[in-house]
Write a structure and sequence with these properties.
28% strand, 6-stranded antiparallel β-barrel, alpha+beta, RsdA/BaiN/AoA(So)-like_dom, single chain, 7-stranded mixed sheet, Helicase, Ruva Protein, domain 3, FAD/NAD(P)-binding domain, 408 residues, 14 helices
Length: 408
């Protein structure tokens, strides 16, 4: 009979176990993990560097990075958020560094620093770790909970489920009576049928991205951030944020849509069609004898500028003075309203995030305890919470684990 049993040997599971043990040294605690290895998502995050949180220090600003869960997380973030996480890891012997875009990493640039910290902590606190424990059933017991795996039976006074996006565990929770919001992919890159875009692989540019249905209806998804051309289509923060906020509507469209891009920027602001047309007319007056390809606007990479010219029906070697009204208008449209046919998605690197999980209205976010069952707690992506890139998914895991330890 354990005082606390945790299903899931990932970020949320370990963080919960360690913080509970620090507050209750007398507790007997065990972690169950279905795989041979623990903390696999921590290991691959951020290209093996582990982007563990983000230097966003206002709860109201922080929740804007959560397409699902932003309302529920506002109160928890007032109690434990990014600065608290950074202080926690520094105090546990992991020096950190903050990059220019706000992402926070171990100073070592290695996720092993986080993994070693966690493994050292559970050893110090005598927290038991059982790997290759594939959970078969979860059921209330006389004094708490009973968990059966393929080869063992565990009983505990309190149970934490921190298994991430795990369909089998979701089904077991549904069997108990919890509502599961059906999962769909979130945080993915776009494939395109627009062939000339694929020839620009490796080019990155800050742009405004908007998504439309194939019929032209605006999907209420708009992001302004760096856009990366790939050999299959598009990636970068603009696309990843759009994929997260549009996860459900894009799934309903089978990932077939139109992406409109505004490449025209001045003073970090997107320019309108009319503003760009005026600039093009000015270029025609001032650079009449020059080739259009030699005067690159809006600091666009040369390859992209030439591709946009050709898309607008303007020969790169053509002189500015020879551009007619129709060509200027078409170039202004291409610069501000280029549309690309999106035909599918790809997983972002090795990281896979889903939108879906336990319905949030069934969780008390003061304690992360189930409203349906006493002494049953849930943390991390097993809940219907997901975030954009930048360390925010881990922040959700740390906050949930810490507040469970406070509740206990």
């Amino acid at each position: 009979m354990y005082d606390l049993l945790i299903i899931g040997g990932g970020a949320a599971g370990f963080f919960t176990a360690i913080n509970v043990s620090e507050k209750h040294p007398d507790f007997s605690i065990a972690i169950l993990e279905k795989s041979k290895e623990v903390l696999q998502k921590v290991r691959i995050s951020g290209g093996g560097r582990c982007n563990l949180t983000n230097a966003t220090f206002t709860p109201a600003e922080l929740v804007r990075n959560y397409p699902r869960g932003y309302k529920e997380l506002l109160s928890p973030f007032h109690r434990f958020m990014c600065g608290d996480v950074m202080e926690w890891f520094e105090a546990h012997g992991v020096p950190l560094k903050t990059e220019d875009d706000g992402r926070v990493f171990p100073a070592s640039d290695s996720s092993e620093s986080i993994i070693n910290c966690f493994l050292k902590a559970i050893a110090q606190h005598n927290i038991e770790l059982f790997t290759q424990q594939n959970v078969q059933s979860i059921s209330p017991a006389e004094q708490g909970w009973q968990v059966r795996t393929a080869n063992r039976t565990f009983t505990a006074k309190r149970l934490v489920i921190a298994t991430g996006s795990n369909p089998k565990i979701w089904q077991l929770l549904a069997d108990l009576g919890h509502t599961i919001v059906s999962p769909v992919p979130s945080l993915f890159t776009f494939q395109t049928a627009t062939e000339w875009a694929k020839t620009l692989s490796g080019i990155a540019v800050t742009a405004t991205v908007q998504l439309f249905s194939q019929k032209g209806d605006f999907l209420q998804i708009s992001e302004r951030a760096p856009l990366l051309f790939t050999h299959k289509g598009f990636s970068g923060p603009a696309v990843l944020r759009a994929s997260a906020w549009g996860a459900r509507v894009l799934a309903s469209l089978d990932y077939q849509c139109l992406m409109e891009v505004n490449f025209a920027t001045a003073d970090e602001q997107a320019l309108s069609y009319d503003e760009v047309l005026l600039q093009l007319q000015d270029c025609k007056q001032r650079h009449g004898r020059k080739a259009v390809q030699s005067v690159t606007l809006f600091q666009l990479p040369k390859r992209l500028w030439e591709a946009l010219l050709e898309s607008a029906g303007v020969a790169p070697a053509q002189q500015w003075a020879s551009l007619n009204k129709s060509q200027l208008q078409q170039l202004a449209k291409v610069l501000t309203q280029s549309r690309f046919s999106i035909t599918g998605k790809n997983t972002f690197k090795e990281e896979f995030v889903t939108a879906g999980g336990v319905k949030l209205s069934e969780i008390d976010f003061k304690t992360y305890q189930s409203k349906l069952f006493k002494h049953l707690y849930l943390a991390g992506e097993v809940l219907d919470i997901d975030a954009v890139t930048g360390g925010f998914n881990f922040q959700n895991a740390w906050t949930g684990g810490y507040l469970i330890s406070e509740a206990l």
